[in-house]
Amino acid sequence: MLYKMLQFILLATVAAAAAINGPSVSPVLSRQTANLPDTFEWSSSGVLVSAKDDGRNISGIKDPSIIYHNNAYHVFASTAQAAGYSLVYFTFTDFAQANNATFHYLDQSAIGTGYRAAPEVFFFEPHNLWYLVYQNGNAAYSTNTDITDPTAWTAPTDFYSGTPDTVTANIGDGYWVDMWVICDATNCHLFSSDDNGHLYRSQTALSSFPANMSEPVIALSDTNKYALFEASNVYAYGPEQYLLLVEAFGSDGNRYFRSWNASAIEGPWTGLADTEADPFARSSNVVFADEVAWTESISHGEVVRTVVDQRLSISPCGLRYLYQGVNPNATESYDSLPWTLGLLTQTNSAC
Ligand SMILES: *[C@@H]1O[C@H](CO)[C@@H](O)[C@H](O)[C@H]1NC(C)=O
Ligand SMILES: *[C@@H]1O[C@H](CO)[C@@H](O)[C@H](O)[C@H]1NC(C)=O
Ligand SMILES: *[C@@H]1O[C@H](CO)[C@@H](O)[C@H](O)[C@H]1NC(C)=O
Ligand SMILES: *[C@@H]1O[C@H](CO)[C@@H](O)[C@H](O)[C@H]1NC(C)=O
Ligand SMILES: *[C@@H]1O[C@H](CO)[C@@H](O)[C@H](O)[C@H]1NC(C)=O
Question: Where does the signal sequence lie (predicted)?
Fold first, then answer.
């Protein structure tokens, strides 16, 4: 990670514009009775959002986090280029307009330059604040009263005093990545991955958040690190159920998502659609309009959320998933790959 941080000192600067909007209060969690299916089918859009020719020389737009709030979609994503990773925010009212949205680079806020990647945005009701959680070598957060003001994010604060011992003991030659916070009625939980077959979970009391994250426990593991790699999402659905998604490498070398569910964020996690033959989302259960799919990887992203709170509640009906994909013919090195965003729409929703 250190080399990436050093590379970031070279990042250029571009002014970001701000819009002013007040924070809003989230709707009460609706008590869904519908269940998730145990098999998924999707259709995919074409490329929706790609890097712009705006002087930043960015290669890829990755790792989107998305929420619909005040009649607009708000997306936070990683920008990737050989020089390193940073964060971007953009907003639009209709997916057909998404690629026209102005990019606001968050290194222009107090988040600053340097290695920051894989954001997750959510509204934390007890503080009446938006939180942006991301990786910076540690797990970090920034806050903002106004999701539409990209200049107003606070400087990064780390969740941990350093890499937790449990991660150090298990990470092997992996990377500690993809932090994800979700709260229930009493605790907030911080998930992360190590590209080495381990999903970690820490917790702190809701009343203490964001302080005092515990030493992580291993929430899920796999002896095949490629089967439990990174990019986890955890959501609440139904009366008291949770959906876990983790990105894996398929036998064809392409990324896809596996899924589990549980009746508590602590687990235990039960396989829902968790195999390559029965995946949550993979090229094999996604239909593309074009004869040749623009991507064979269904990689890091998240469910389009419409409920604004720290419970991360989603409806189990008619899921949409904003993801990163890449032309399979791309030959650039990993950090310079031209990742772009696309949208999956569930086609087998029973409700
Ligand atoms: C832009 O990125 C490419 C690699 O994607 C690199 O070869 C080139 O040197 C970069 N240009 C600048 C001006 O940084
Ligand atoms: C993007 O904006 C330009 C200029 O306003 C417009 O011509 C174009 O149709 C827009 N594209 C989309 C996809 O909305
Ligand atoms: C964090 O834990 C310490 C030690 O138990 C305690 O003194 C402190 O009040 C806690 N902070 C919060 C915000 O709960
Ligand atoms: C997981 O989802 C399946 C399929 O909807 C359901 O039958 C099962 O009860 C769920 N398990 C938990 C723990 O929520
Ligand atoms: C990748 O290259 C092959 C062979 O040239 C071509 O047929 C295919 O359309 C390309 N795929 C994409 C997504 O561009």
Answer: 1-17
Q: What is the rounded distance in angstroms from the CA atom of residue 272 to the CA atom of residue 151?
A: 40
Q: Cis omega (within 30 of 0) on the bond before 156?
A: no
Residue nearest to atom 10 of ligand 1 (CA): 57
From the list 22, 28, 149, 45, the residue with the least C-alpha distance to 94 is 45
Handedness of CA 74, 76, 80, 84 (dihedral sign): positive
Dihedral sign for Cα atoms in the order 307, 313, 317, 323: positive
Q: Is the CB of 99 under 6 A from ligand 4?
A: no
DSSP-derived letter for residue 307 is S
Helix (H, G, I), strand (E, B) or coil at 178: strand
Chunked in runs of 10, what are the mean pLDDT values of the chain (351 residues)? 33 28 37 80 98 96 98 98 97 97 98 98 98 98 98 98 98 98 98 98 98 98 98 96 98 98 98 98 97 97 97 97 98 96 97 91
**Number of neighbouring beta carbons within 10 Å of residue 119:** 24
Q: For a pocket test of ligand 3, which of 208, 209, 215 has the largest count of ligand atoms closer than 8 A to its C-beta? A: 208
* Whole-number pLDDT of residue 34: 78
Rounded-to-integer distance, Cα 41 and Cα 280, Å: 8
**Residue with CA closest to ligand 1 atom 6:** 82
For residue 33, the model assigns a pLDDT of: 59
How far, in Å, are 78, 191, 242 from residue 223 at the CA level? Answer: 29, 19, 24
Give the pLDDT confidence score for residue 22 in this predicted structure: 32
C-beta neighbour count of 214 within 10 angstroms: 15
Q: What is the pTM of this model?
A: 0.91
Residue 173 in contact with residue 196, Cβ under 8 Å? Answer: yes
Q: Which residue has the tokens 């590209």?
A: 195
Interval between CA 340 and ligand 1 midpoint (Å): 18
Residue 251: partners with Cβ closer than 8 Å, 6 or more residues away: 276
What domains are there in the chain, each with its CATH number? 32-346 (2.115.10.20)
DSSP annotation of 214 reads P
